[in-house]
Structure formats: structure tokens, C-alpha cells
Amino acid sequence: MAKEPIELEVAEDGVQLAPMTDARAVLTRVVDDASIDGKVSAFTTRGRRRAYVIPPAVYDELLKLRAEAAAK
Length: 72
Known about the structure:
Blueprint: E1 9-10, E2 16-19, H1 23-37, E3 41-45, E4 48-53, H2 56-71
Parallel strand pairs: 2-3
Antiparallel strand pairs: 1-2, 3-4
């Protein structure tokens, strides 16, 4: 019997919140959401954001911005 899909809470800033207790069950989903749909997700423990999953394009942009800031 297949498990029901876990519904992720979406914070006001659009970040999906994935409790660490459910991390294994939602890992594939949040990775796919980032790479396919461009969504940002955060794994949470006791309601606090602990780690983010971001789209590759966002990461690339952050690296570019960091390099530009370091060059100044």
C-alpha cells in the first residue's frame, strides 16, 4: 500500500518547509521541485529552518554575486 503524499507547508516567503522527521520521505520531492519547478525548500527541526534546497540557477547566481562583491 502506497503512503499518502506529504503536504509541505509553504511559508510567507514562498519557501516550502519540510520537517526533518519527514526528510527521507520528501527528499526526492524537494530536489525535483528545485530542479524542475524552481522552488526553494527548507528542512526544519522544531519549526526552525536548518538547511535549504535551492534551484541550481539560484546557486549559480549567488556564486556570481559573491565573486562580484569580493572583487570590489
